[in-house]
Amino acid sequence: MIQCSTGTDPVSHPLRRVLKEMLTMMNHEPTYIAARAVATTAEAHFARHLAAARARGEQELAPEPTASTIEAIIDATFWASLRREEGQSPQISLAFVSPAQVSQPMIFERPLPLTPGVLTKLAPAVERPGIHLGVWSEKSSGSREDVVSWGAGDLHVWGATRTVPNFCFVLEVIEPGLLVIKHRRQAGIGKFANVAVLKGEQIKIVDEEGASVPDCPGLITSLLAFTSPSEWDHSMNILVQLAASMRAHKHGGSLLVVPAGDSKWRDSIVQPVLYSITPQFSALADLIRQEANERQAGSRDAAVRRAVDTVAGLTAVDGATIISDQYEVLAFGAKIRRPDGSAPVERIVATEPIVGDSAVVLHPVQTGGTRHLSAAQFIHDQRDALALVASQDGRFTIFAWSPCEEMVHAHRVDTLLM
């Protein structure tokens, strides 16, 4: 007979540990307060978008999650994010979807309980981008027609998938305690559309309607890619993809978007430009101009992603990368200067696309460091341009001229890019 000392943990055996996790799940009430606070808002968001998609006649849509389902998934994932497996914090993405609704699912023989311990153990296997742990309910029939909302009482992890249907509830761990609720764009590639960001007790709900932007048609047009739901659904939204790729390389950088065929921007750049491009590099522009058909769509989308990453990679070099509004690369490593006779920028208006935000006027140095100040000066002098600025800490700001406010507008959008 094998005897255990009185100091031995009676549940140290792996099987007993799993049983303990299952018992904990059965008796568990969510304890992450922010999960409950955001669940109803998120439920309404997905219900609204799915109803609109059904009204448009779209098929094969994601299931509609209830507030209790959303709360349970967030709660388990939040506590998992604070754990460590082999010294590493979990970086996982969960999708609320049936395995019958995705292509080529990897299905476990026995579903696993949705608990922090299970998610932490699985994390090393699914940390690569584009992989989601599938979460579903035993009550579901699993058919593609079954898109009924289910409660959270018997949620389980059924396996993993690289594909999810339109408007599928996805929860991603960015870092310990930082979670993002998102969904796949309609017919979109690349960056998912963010719904809400949770960091500890702080909740930021994305302002879909751009209500945080001052009522100025020219400015709204400039920032349309980041504030309009319709544009976020567009499969070729290059500005959003460039911004996400710039933020992802974590070196920080500046991207200046200037009118095609206009050389006025050179007045705001130190000459000569060390890395001036002749002729203009047009690989990304050429792909955008291509007529796509159904057979070419997949390969073209992959080519666009590669071209986007190539352009965004140039912003990691010290200095600004300059492209035309037709996405032709003109130069990189450029140094911004104030033209002769131009006044220094002293005030800007700043906003963030989250519900409840309001515009504030401040000095440009309050938005960031040298990159932000030089970008604000560039837009102050080149009012038909845009400036996208990524910080090494993940902050991301779009600078545009606001004719209504008669000053530079700084729109912080990292909430949309996580």
Q: Which secondary structure elements does this structure contain, and how are they paired or packed?
A:
Blueprint: H1 14-26, H2 33-55, H3 67-81, E1 93-96, E2 106-113, H4 116-122, E3 132-137, E4 155-161, E5 170-175, E6 178-183, E7 193-199, E8 202-205, H5 217-222, H6 224-227, H7 229-232, H8 238-249, E9 253-258, E10 275-281, H9 283-289, H10 297-314, E11 320-324, E12 329-334, E13 348-351, E14 360-362, H11 370-381, E15 386-390, E16 396-402, E17 407-412, H12 414-417
Parallel strand pairs: 1-3, 9-11, 13-17
Antiparallel strand pairs: 1-5, 2-4, 3-4, 5-6, 6-7, 7-8, 9-15, 10-12, 11-12, 13-14, 15-16, 16-17
Helix pairs in contact: 2-3, 3-4, 8-10, 9-10
Percent of residues in helical segments? 25-40%
Q: Runs with pLDDT <50, length 5+? A: 1-12, 23-27, 140-152, 232-236
Number of strands: 17
Strand arrangement, major sheet? 10-12-11-9-15-16-17-13-14
Q: Report the C-alpha radius of gyration, rounded.
A: 24 Å
Structural class: alpha+beta
Distance between the termini: 55 Å
User: Helix count?
Assistant: 12
Strand content: 15-25%
- C-alpha geometry: globular
How confident overall, as mean pLDDT? 83
Tell me the series of helices and strands, N- to C-terminal: HHHEEHEEEEEEHHHHEEHHEEEEHEEEH
